[in-house]
Amino acid sequence: MPGKTPDKEPVENGGYRGGNDMKDKPKPKSKKNAKEGEDEMTVVVPPSKKQNSAPPPDVEDGDVAMDVDNADDGEAKVDPVVQTLSDVKSNFALLDRAVVLFDARFTLRALRSISSIRKRLTPDILAQAISEAYPASTPSDALPRQFLSALGRPDVQLGRQPGPEMEIDSEPKAGKNGAKKEVKDIIPEIDVFFGILTQVLFHDNKMWQQGLEFSRFLVDRIQSFNRRTLDSLSAKVYFYYSLFAEQLAPLPPSPQSPIVSIRPVLLAALRTAVLRKDVDTQASVIVLLLRNYLLTSHISQADLLVQHSQFPENAANNQVARYLYYLGRTRAIQLRYTEAHEHLTAATRKAPSSACALGFSQTATKLLLVVELLMGDIPDRATFRQPTFEAALHPYFLLVQAVRVGNLEDFETIIAEHVDTFRRDGTYTLILRLRQNVIKTGIRMMSLSYSRISLRDICIRLHLGSEESAEYIVAKAIRDGVIEATLDRERGFMKSKEIGDVYATREPGEAFHDRINACLALHDESVKAMRFPMNQHRLELKSAQEAREREREMAKEIQDGDLDEDDLGGEFEGM
Questions:
Q1: Are 46 and 90 members of one domain?
Q2: Where among 263, 285, 315 does a domain terminate?
Q3: pLDDT in tens, 415-442
Q4: H or E element at residue 39
Q5: One Pfam annotation, family name (predicted)?
């Protein structure tokens, strides 16, 4: 009956109202509310699972909760093999877009994904990815067959093997005329990408000989193409090619090292890259050649390479940092410390700030500290307090303390204790040159402390062998401008001159000028590094031309009388 309150009926139909509601005093309801209650009673019956507060009597609470948890766990778990295959295949679309749009940024995105893929990559996963990427009709002497042979999986069949759940999707679809669609050809960029993954796999497994042989085959394959979309991939191939050669015995600096045998290949690649204006390969190969020459101590050849080649201005920032580091090392060995300091300072500034590039930053900073000491400067103490550099630069911190004080005995003791570290860092030969700088620093400290000091006292304080050697060192320091003093050979003492005001000289202005030049150079490089959309200026010209044509048409219609100013809605007043 619509006039009665349906309080009891919904309770009997599945507990729509709770027990607490039954205890409350019922409020008088209108006929409209009673009618809505009947509608709700009709919807509730039969009660849904979400509305029922109590489970069915034949199902236990624990069983229901267990089934739900298992279902959630099954959905959350992802097979790492399937995930790795999916990550590898996702790069194919990027490479296709790089070829279609002629944009190298998509290729760089594919290369950056290798760092995450290589942690889960195995020969079986890579062989499966190759087999699914290439059709079964591939010839036996084709590139994917050779990839599988290099991986030690020659028995893997090419073509995606259909599973029971993919029987329908695996069949090639037919067109409107009933003919089957042709299988899409694999572009060379995907071939080279698989080759780079194979090189990475060999490198991570320390298979140096297999990696060098495979890299030679891949380099020959790349040289047969002339595609600008392969530039970034080719640079990565040459990088691993040189890396494999460095790891094989006899190790450098032996003249029989395999790195000597790959120089003709790298020089030929450099000539080809310059002719084709391949910026990525050109920058990468120049850096590899400089590293190659420095590993075998061929400093003159490295200098000739720098003189007769031009490093591309629009190269990647990482390659520029490496080039500046090797150039600074070359100049430091050639005793050109000012140029070496400029190059190494720029290399440390351009070094990536990510954790994976921390080793490069530490190596460049170590060499920069030694060059500053050779120039007669004392490095800033804040450099050694950085958390990422504190442990690595501790031997150099002790070295700087000995040079700053001018204590020759402590200097020789520190070298003897940390000789292995200095040899591993490649700075041992440069540090040995610091002996004269320690002596000059000691003499300069004495010239600042004493107005006149005997050569015998200098010999005792610096732990020199005789007074004649002290006299020679003091005379050389005066000639080089290290100290402002005079030497009295007859009486056997050194007399210091009064020190003038340094701000009255040109030194502060020159230092300020150098800082301004560094800031301006950084600004110019930042402007050059900015990216703009391709052909954006053409789109702006086209839109402007269309706007002018519309204005001409509107003006013509006004002149003809077809359109007046009222029809324009007030927007044509400016014309």
A1: no
A2: 315
A3: 999 999 999 999 999 999 998 878 877 8
A4: helix 31-44
A5: Rpn3_C
